[in-house]
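Q&A log
Question type: sequence-to-structure
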Amino acid sequence: MSRIPTTDALSRRGIDIGDGLCPLCSSEEESTDHLLTSCVVAVILWQKISLWCRIPPIFAFSIKDLLEIHKTGNLKGGEREALHGIITVACWCLWLARNKVKFSASEIKVDSVFSDVKSLGYLWFKNRYKCKPIS
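Response status: OK
Response body:
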């Protein structure tokens, strides 16, 4: 819905934000799709998540692709819910990493973003999935 305040969304609203490059990679204009799917940080993060979750590599070209990945493949009910949660948490962690770079001039490492995804994903799933113990 173009509500995430990336540089391209803000410029469409008439707010000038400088050069407009992605804070994580500085190689392309920042948009929601770029930040969450095609930025080099996001691509590496999705590779790490694929290996961690033991699923085929995640290739997404848009936010819609990301949010529908859990519907493909041969995952069972709880596994689908867990993957959907992990993808949602990963998007949130990428946004937080972007904000750290943009507003705190921090250096971001993909491994630290991945670590955040694992810990926040575990907490999210632990508090939402009531059926079985988590293994």
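Response note: The chain has one domain: 30-128.
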